[in-house]
Design the sequence.
């Protein structure tokens, strides 16, 4: 069944077919999310990072950087520069761009993120989310629906989580990325995860991140022009084709990731470019003129780059010898995005 209601689908198709998508905004003003502005001034990042107990500064970065490279880290961890007499972090946390608060988790024990805030930056050509986690406190003037300005204080750095973070490793966990589906609860129920989904569509499973330092480095050097260029400038690690006549709500949120208009009729599938970490960054609608019609839900691996995938801790494309297959992480994400059962 289609993942977006038919009236919404018609609206989306009209926007894409007749060029009514929003105009490209000016490059956004970007702020560092903590008071430690050294990176923006010098480009030196290491002194801003909070590593894990390993002490390796790489463990604070994005990617397969934990547990000897076997565990994925979705964001970047930034250390404090201020502490109180109890050695607790006191750094204010700032929104990195203008946006709207779409989710707040105020109960630390309800998530591995602890207390966290999600902001969607709806004025951008691709309205990415940013996420601020492990907060000690949330600013009293911040609530769901609050419009915030870039550089506005939204909380205080801390070490809140559903597990124990010692005082010495208090930090901000920062993410930037895309939301996979508006129907995460349906997927959650289908997968029969244990316990209740306490975070709606802003559960971490429903978020796909990119390396925040690509974003910050482009902002620091004046190269950040728009979100689409930044997102689609990431290396393509693999390309798949998905046979379906459905238009996922992912496209309704991020139409700028399309390579061409969706046909008014005759859609038979999608060709999708992915990063090695599993972010779908480029979408091409397909008709029967492009590919032979296949069974609904069939997935074909079109191309992959072993050098970008070898040793990766996420099970997106699994390579054994000369053979590559779709991994469980990728299959789960396709179930979530397209509603496959």
Sequence:
């Amino acid at each position: 069944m289609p993942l977006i209601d038919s009236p919404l689908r018609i609206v989306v198709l009209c926007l894409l077919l007749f060029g009514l998508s929003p105009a490209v905004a000016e490059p956004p003003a970007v702020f560092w999310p903590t008071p430690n502005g050294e990176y923006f001034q010098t480009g030196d990042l290491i002194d801003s990072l909070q590593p894990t107990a390993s002490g390796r500064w790489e463990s604070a970065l994005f990617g397969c950087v934990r547990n000897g490279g076997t565990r994925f880290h979705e964001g970047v961890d930034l250390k404090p520069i201020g502490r109180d007499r109890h050695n607790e972090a006191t750094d204010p946390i700032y929104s990195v761009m203008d946006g709207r608060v779409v989710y707040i988790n105020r109960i630390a024990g309800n998530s591995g993120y602890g207390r966290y805030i999600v902001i969607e930056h709806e004025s951008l050509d691709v309205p990415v989310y940013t996420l601020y986690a492990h907060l000690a406190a949330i600013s009293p003037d911040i609530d769901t629906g609050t419009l915030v300005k870039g550089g506005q204080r939204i909380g205080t750095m801390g070490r809140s989580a559903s597990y124990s973070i010692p005082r010495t490793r208090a930090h901000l966990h920062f993410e930037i990325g895309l939301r996979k589906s508006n129907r995460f609860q349906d997927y959650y129920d289908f997968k029969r995860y244990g316990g209740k989904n306490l975070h709606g569509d802003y559960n971490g499973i429903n978020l796909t991140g990119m390396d925040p330092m690509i974003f910050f480095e482009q902002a620091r050097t004046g190269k950040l022009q728009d979100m689409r260029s930044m997102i689609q400038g990431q290396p393509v690690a693999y390309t798949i084709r998905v046979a379906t006549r459905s238009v996922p709500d992912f496209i309704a949120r991020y139409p700028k990731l399309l390579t061409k208009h969706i046909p008014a009729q005759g859609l038979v599938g999608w060709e999708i470019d992915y990063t090695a970490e599993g972010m779908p960054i480029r979408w091409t609608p397909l008709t029967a003129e492009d590919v032979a019609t296949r069974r609904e839900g069939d997935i074909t691996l079109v191309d992959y780059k072993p050098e970008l995938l070898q040793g990766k801790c996420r099970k997106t494309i699994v390579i054994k010898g000369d053979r590559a297959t779709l991994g469980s992480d990728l299959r789960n994400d396709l179930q979530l995005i397209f509603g496959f059962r």
Q: What stands out?
A: The two ends are 10 Å apart (CA to CA). The longest strand covers residues 172-179. The mean pLDDT is 91.
